[in-house]
Amino acid sequence: MSDLFNKLLILRTPGIGPAKYMALLARFGSVSEAVEFLKPDQELKDCVNYEMDAADKLNIIYLSDDDERYPKKLFDIKNHVPILTVRGNLSTLSKDLISIVGTRHASIAGANFIARLSESFAMHNFTVVSGMAMGTDTAAHVGALRANGDAQTIAVLAGGADYIWPLENESLYYKILDRGAIVSEMTVGTKPITNNFVQRNRIIAGLAERLILGEADLKSGSMTTANFAIGYGRSVFAVPSHPSDGRSVGPNKLIKEGKAILCTGITDFFEEKKETETEKIQSENYLLDRLGTIPVSESVLAQFVKKPIAEIKTDLIILELQGFVKKQNGGYIKI
Q1: Domain 90-268, what fold?
Q2: What is the pLDDT of residues 104-158, one digit of tens each?
Q3: CA 267 centroid distance within chain
Q4: Where do the domains of the chain lie?
Q5: What are the pLDDT digits (tens) for 33-72?
Q6: Which of 53, 87, 96, 313 has a C-alpha 20 to 30 A away from that of 207?
Q7: What is the pTM of this model?
């Protein structure tokens, strides 16, 4: 039997997770002797064989912790993952990584901020790590993939590396496969269940040296991920939000307690580059200076800038076509 097969036999034995796996290896000195002690039945052996065959057909790679390609930062995790499954570009794991997480129910402004931040990191040759959930995670992946060149992103899943969840992100899953990697510690074919998300979150927190927290409820999985990162000694950055928004509680609390560093944009991480033509247009536009995340009507804008509504309507249409503003709830917001 192969070394990988033996390792999977141990990990797929009911009741054995990373902690017991490590204890067995420490006790017996080798995976083969640990398997001999466990005496797995033929049914379990058949299940592992089936899993390995399925993984091979899907080009899913098993990455053991004794493989030189295994992410070294994951060793900081107590009872780290003994075997990862990786689908896609394995070399992505060796890049400079930044983890970005937040609520599934992100505001438009919050999601846009994360997407722009993620795109900027990708432009600085960082690979963005997130969990492919709706909301903030999706914005992080999409933002990274917007960058030119060979920008990459990693999705860490709570189910098997082949199990697409949520289904709304099926197209995103394959875009990530094309330019990054899908990572999981779960058995191939596993459907994600609640407990698996906590396991997934510790990997997201452990993979990168820094983690950015967007909007997040106090008891959310994103806050769990941030707390894992703090426990691993990672640098945690939090994006502040308006105090009246429940999604602000998590990041604002970490900033207030000194557990997270205030994140206001990409210039918190890199030297500010020369203003681009797009940024110049934005800063010089008399309407954009008056818009933010709260919708403002055409009539109010007309009063602010002291121009006829007919004139600003034309300019607003141009800005909307250029992707600088969006009509929402009877008014306009800057995006």
Answers
A1: Rossmann fold (3.40.50)
A2: 999 999 999 999 999 999 999 999 999 999 999 999 999 999 998 787 999 999 9
A3: 20
A4: 1-57, 90-268, 277-334
A5: 999 999 999 999 999 999 999 999 999 999 999 999 999 9
A6: 53
A7: 0.82
